[in-house]
Specification:
2 copies of one chain form a homodimer.
Chain A: H1 4-10, E1 18-23, H2 38-41, H3 45-52, E2 55-60, H4 70-77, H5 89-96, E3 106-115, E4 121-123, H6 131-141, E5 150-157, E6 160-166, H7 196-216, E7 224-232, H8 239-243, E8 247-250, H9 254-262, E9 266-267, H10 274-284, E10 290-295, H11 297-304, H12 307-325, E11 331-335, E12 352-358, H13 371-374, E13 380-383, H14 387-394
Parallel strand pairs in A: 1-10, 1-11, 2-13, 8-9, 8-10
Antiparallel strand pairs in A: 2-12, 3-4, 3-6, 3-7, 5-6, 11-12
Chain lengths: ~400, ~400
């Protein structure tokens, strides 16, 4: 893969418009030996027809055999090496609700939880707390003051919230207080390393938890907080800075909006449905030159083990392909961030099929958009980090390397 | 390729069992243009049938165009970067006979040789000395004392033995005394670099050779030693430490037993034949969760230039595939460590075909296990270092990378 530094040297502006359509968890495996994956089961005449005019291939999100979380998988698609840029869940969650980070802030995810009188956890999600009640409690916890640090508590949804600590000499290298099961006590937050920063931040986090416990003690259900996914925010170079792209994200789930914001995309308001997302794309198409368009439900149904519903979502997306192509993008890439085979009910390591269409793509002989067909595609087997350079090249946005 | 550090973070225990079946020097080339390789000539109904249910591909042992020795080729298959971990032949040979190294020991291979009265070599192998005689001579040479260093001389087989120097400030960066041909004088051992350590170890080695020459002067045949493959021992992290695998090796040649020991495998007692090896596999199958099963003779016949016998060995292995599959391993990989085309009578740079079978492998359309078919396999063209992550993923032993 080419380094970001070199890519930055080569990028130039142009009027071309590119779309990166990500079907989350697209890749699958078959239910029976010799059977078909979700994508192969789905009727996808429009994607297949697009594949005929495209160059195709297979994409490894990270490396052979490695199953990625959504954060690293997306960073990789956006051209940011996920091994170099390791973004913790706390930061991703906070970015997802649009939290305005400053460098070296430390974030963690909060679960409102229920503990019994003896302090043992009885429900790690406080009965999937009402979102409004969550908002009220966050407003109160947001007033907690601890000398030497600023604290921000923000509501997310149901039992989920986030906390951000801002101050000098903080570290995100901390263990969770959430033991990940009921029937036991919350754990003290501990530092993963011996630095003064990590020890001091662990002390702060534990003090914060104590303050929360005091405030919440009069609550019947949400009478405790559990913290996990501590991470320090570290700003990334923006897609504008690296690629000279005016990039927009159309994604309706907080975490994906968060990753997009992290790489400097404008995160557009869009509704909940695929139709809403496509309306947003059409409405904003003249205003940006790169669109990240995210479809979440392929992954959700994969994680639920619902093969048929995943097939259905793929078919639904397929029906909208002509609508997208009518916008006449110069480049469109369709792929997944990782595989989520319904039979595994989880993310997996399997590569995703990819198609890239542009006037200049050099179409291959692949005639269908599927795992088994794209194996023989003209792109070969690539890493997700190769996708942005290929988009930029096909968008005629990359200068020659060397004379 | 993913780094070993990250892989170590991601590995978890499980009850799954994996087999890595290595046909040494498997890959070949045809005798006539447009003809068939050894593997393509062999009748392999069982491997072909397994390929139908597997994902396949091509594997480069080190890098395009690079012909590996057996040591680096195996390290790579075991997931250890052979560029980073350079193990000299002397160390490998000593490991092969179970020598118990201490860190920074320096080892070299010994050939018992015959020299004429003027000192010129007449036979580099002392008439392929009797193994028992070899043992007697090694016992005598083992008594050589040189101040400041401990010396261990151990018999291997026929004309082959090893010597290990133990002490402070030694170096393995030395040239051979073996000129690799008869009719000339043995060479003095020289240091490859200007360090005090290398110069001092060269001096020790030359003094050792002088002592040997004195002791052996009354011998008619084995009246000299030739040293080659100097190398310093450097312990590797074990497969248990990195992969959390309880790994066993079934290999009947010393060097492969040595490499397996180097990465912390338990080296099982097994007989000389393929049948013996498979009996060992069956007997020990419940006791380990990873098996490295090594077939040597594909390589031996390749090096002999015996195309037909190499074909025969492949067919023999094929007949045993059902026996292996009856053990019901969760993952099986079949490949070579490098190619040894009979027409080249030597190791070569050609990639090897690979098949990986597991419940989760996402089978491709390849219907035969061969070089020309596996080119179109779903794994694509991978590096041998990718094999362990793929085995671990398919064995459901890898956690997700990032959130």
């Amino acid at each position: 893969m080419i380094s970001m530094d070199i890519l930055k040297e080569l990028c130039q502006k142009s009027n071309s418009k590119s779309i990166l359509l990500v079907l989350d968890g697209l890749g699958g495996i078959s239910r029976i030996p010799d059977g078909k994956t979700e994508l192969e089961t789905a009727s996808t005449p429009n994607l297949d027809s697009l594949a005929c005019n495209s160059i195709t291939g297979m994409v490894d999100p990270i490396s052979k055999g490695i199953t990625p979380g959504s954060g690293p998988a997306h960073l990789s698609l956006f051209g940011y090496d996920p091994i170099k840029y390791r973004i913790g869940r706390g930061v991703l969650s906070a970015l997802g609700i649009g939290f305005d980070f400053q460098p070296s802030d430390v974030a963690a995810r909060i679960n409102f939880a229920t503990v019994a009188e003896d302090g043992r956890i009885t429900d790690r999600r406080a009965g999937r707390l009402d979102t409004e009640k969550n908002g009220q409690l966050c407003s109160i916890l947001n007033r907690i003051k601890i000398p030497g640090v600023e604290i921000f508590v923000r509501t997310v949804k149901e039992h989920r919230a986030i906390v951000v600590f801002r101050g000098n000499g903080l570290s995100g290298d901390l263990t969770d207080s959430d033991p990940q099961r009921a029937g036991v006590f919350p754990l003290p937050v501990r530092s993963h390393n011996d630095t003064r920063e990590a020890k001091e931040t662990a002390r702060l986090a534990n003090r914060f938890i104590e303050e929360c416990r005091g405030i919440l003690s009069k609550e019947e259900v949400a009478n405790m907080v559990l913290l996990r996914g501590f991470a320090q925010f570290c700003p990334l170079p923006s897609m504008h800075e690296i690629y000279k792209l005016n990039a927009a994200a159309i994604a309706n789930y907080p975490m994906y909006r968060g990753v997009a914001r992290l790489v400097g995309m404008t995160v557009l308001d869009c509704g909940e449905s695929i139709e809403d997302e496509l309306d947003t794309l059409a409405r904003e198409f003249q205003n940006y030159d790169f669109f990240y368009l995210h479809i979440k439900k392929t992954d959700s149904y994969g994680e639920d083990g619902d093969f048929d519903q995943k097939v259905h979502i793929i078919e639904k997306v397929d029906k909208h392909i002509p609508q997208i192509m009518n916008l006449d993008p110069d480049v469109i890439v369709v792929t997944g961030d990782h595989s989520t085979p319904a039979v595994l009910t989880a993310h997996s390591w399997h590569p995703n099929p990819v198609l890239l269409y542009s006037r200049w793509c050099r179409p291959d002989k692949v005639r269908a958009f599927s795992e088994s067909e794209c194996i023989n595609g003209g792109l070969g087997h690539i890493n997700a980090l190769d996708i942005m350079p290929l988009i930029l090249a096909n968008a005629l946005r990359l200068n020659k390397f060397g004379a």
